[in-house]
Write a structure and sequence with these properties.
Layout: H1 15-46, H2 50-96, H3 98-111, H4 116-140, H5 150-174, H6 180-202, H7 208-234
């Protein structure tokens, strides 16, 4: 039987995982933009020294990228360990007591509203096709082919943070002293509006609210660090 799929309703496996990766990439870039912009704007408001701005921005970029990578690796590794343990447990149960597992699968489909006869038939057919995948899906809502790689997650997080961080870092380093802070401020807000719009689109929501959240949050962060830097510079601390 040929079924025509709706073009705006993707049915390929792993869709949720791919969207999560995209969102994570956008959020990583967003973090890079805000955190490094806050650092360089704060330092630039305290001192016009290019060396001070360069060292602070480079340290923020490198430290932030490493922190993001480590955090993502630990998070995904923990999740992957749990998933792999569940898959191993289900594999052992299927090997040791396949009849009980078949009955359990049929009961799960009966609980969803199928008749006992239909549930038993579905369980038998799915077990014959791929018993482990059937049980992981019905019992644990897991896809054995969609387990995240922690190293990939770590590199992707570090890369997205770095890409985002390079915008304020290069902007403030390349612009003349007289305009470096206001133009960096403007460039950052434009970039945050763009990441907000992309994150909204990925979630299938109206992008206006994420754009406003990003821009307002970025404005507050930059204003706060600028004020702190200016106060320290004015007081002669820096």
């Amino acid at each position: 039987m040929t079924v025509e799929m709706h073009p705006d309703e993707p049915h390929a496996g792993g869709l949720a995982s791919r969207l999560n990766w995209l969102r994570a990439g956008v959020l990583g870039a967003n973090d890079g933009i805000v955190s490094v912009a806050a650092i360089v704007v704060g330092v630039a408001s305290a001192t016009p020294s290019p060396a001070a701005i360069l060292s602070a921005g480079a340290a923020g970029l490198l430290g932030g990228a490493i922190s993001m990578a480590l955090g993502e690796y630990v998070s995904v590794r923990s999740s992957t360990d749990t998933t792999e343990a569940l898959i191993a447990k289900e594999s052992a149960e299927l090997r040791d007591d396949p009849d009980a597992e078949l009955a359990e699968l049929a009961a799960l489909y009966a609980a969803k509203g199928l008749s006992d006869e239909t549930a038993a038939a579905v369980a038998r057919e799915l077990t014959a096709h791929d018993a482990l995948a059937a049980h992981l899906d019905a019992e644990l809502h897991l896809d054995p082919d969609d387990v995240a790689n922690p190293w990939t997650a770590a590199w992707a997080s570090a890369a997205s943070f770095t890409v985002g961080a390079l915008l304020p870092f290069l902007t403030i380093m390349l612009l003349p002293e007289s305009v470096r802070i206001p133009l960096t401020f403007a460039a950052v807000l434009v970039a945050l509006a763009a990441t907000g719009a992309v994150s909204g689109r990925l979630g299938g929501a109206n992008p206006v609210r994420p754009v406003i959240r990003n821009v307002v949050g970025g404005t507050l962060a930059l204003t706060a660090t600028f004020a702190v830097g200016w106060l320290l510079g004015s007081a002669g601390v820096v």
